[in-house]
Amino acid sequence: MKVEIPPNLFDPFLVLESMTESVIITDAHLEDPGPFIIYANPAFEKMTGWSREEVIGKSPRILQGAKTEHGIFKDLRSTLEVGKIWSGRTINYRKDGSDFYMEWSIVPIHNASGDIHQYLAVQREVTYIVDTEHQLQDLMQLERKRRKEIEKTNTKLNRVVGKQKKTLDLFTKFVPEPIVQRALSQDEDEILDGEQIEAALLFCDIRGFTAIAERLKPPQVVSLLNTYYAEMSKVVDEHKGVINQFVGDEIFVAFGAPLPVKDPHLCAVQCAIEMIRKLENINERLQKELGEKIAVGIGINYGPVVAGNLGSEDRLSYSITGDTVITAKRIESLTRAFPNTILISANIQDKIPSQIITQPLDSVEMKGKNKKIEVFKVVI
């Protein structure tokens, strides 16, 4: 059904003149050098700087220049000739030579016979939109680059962290982990500070080790010690002890240093009992592999000690010193005639529960002390 529009309803020319978007009308001659502009509205003049008098009879190509992307026009003619709307975006030029981005929409205009006799082109400047798109693309590119840099940094950081962890894991094989963690938590000026604390100290020594070592080859001696240390270290860890050092065939363990533990005296005695019991498994292995068995002696004391990192800025060693340490070592030396024996001082005896059975020994004199000290044997 054809709709009749009253001629006095609106004036098409006034509509075109009042539009805020640029409009030009060309003839229908698409062959080069056509088509030619037959109308341009005021918005076109404002956008391009060209007056309508200057462009009437000219080709729209007057707006093109060096940066114009001619490739977008390749389907223009084929689209318009069949009566379809063509749209595109490219760089065009104003009269003063400045370039800007413009979107085109070209609509075929049909006459009363239905033939295309003109084309109406609406142009809209989109420089701001294009610039914004380019900025977004640049930002996205920067973001992709930043992410790649972050990924590379994370990869490097993970390698560094992995290497540091490997180093720390290796380091804790030489230095007890509690000592390492304590040092890491201290400020640089606190590392060399010492402190006086109460701790239980345990010395465990292999009896007759020199004679055993003489019967074995060096690799066998190392194998024996590694087997012995590995099993004893597990027992020490289970009872919250910290191995201060291995000295030859001797193990020096602290309970309560460098980190405090509950009932260090009880932990030390229970650890010693378990170490004696563990010898049965150790000796089964040593007998099978080396044809040897070992016996140990253990001495335990409790009291004040001075603990801290000793040495220089270049080399430090966590040390526990004091009369309590010396006494513990001398108590251990009393076991030389009593294999697989645990001897404790009165300071330990007074603090352990009655469930742990002990036998008093004669008071013994110790070098450097004015009076004898009481020593007790733990019954296993």
How many separate domains?
Answer: 2
Query: Tell me, what's the shape?
Result: rod-shaped
Helix content: 25-40%
Write down the CATH class of the largest domain. Answer: Alpha Beta
| Total beta strand runs | 13
Q: Could you describe the largest sheet, including whether it forms a barrel?
A: 8 strands, mixed
Q: Which structural class best describes the helix and strand composition?
A: alpha+beta
The overall pLDDT, averaged over residues, is: 86
CATH-level-4 superfamily name of the largest domain: Nucleotide cyclase, GGDEF domain
**Total helical segments:** 11
CATH level 3 topology of the largest domain: Alpha-Beta Plaits
Q: Tell me the radius of gyration.
A: 48 Å
User: What's the CATH architecture name of the largest domain?
Assistant: 2-Layer Sandwich
Distance from N terminus to C terminus (CA atoms, Å) equals 115 Å
| pLDDT < 50 stretches | 170-175
How much strand? Answer: 25-35%
Structural description of this entry:
This protein has 380 residues and is of the alpha+beta class. It folds into two domains: 114 residues, PAS domain (Beta-Lactamase); 188 residues, 2-Layer Sandwich (Alpha-Beta Plaits). It is 39% helix and 27% strand. The strands form two sheets. Strands 6, 7, 8, 9, 10, 11, 12 and 13 form an eight-stranded mixed beta sheet that branches. A five-stranded antiparallel beta sheet has the order 2-1-5-4-3. A hairpin with a 5-residue loop joins β4 and β5. α8 packs antiparallel against α9. The longest helix has 48 residues. It is rod-shaped and about 135 Å long. It starts with 11 loop residues before the first helix and ends with a strand. About 2% of the residues have low confidence.
